[in-house]
Amino acid sequence: MTFEERLSLFCENLRLYLKSVEWLKISIERCKSLDLKAEWSLEDYERIETLFARFSRAVDILLNKVLRSLDILELEEPLRKLDVVIRAEKRGIVKDYNFLIELKDLRNELAHEYIEEALKNRLEEVMEKSLLLLEITENLKEYAQRMRYLEGCPELGG
Question: pTM above the 0.85 mark?
Answer without folding.
Answer: yes
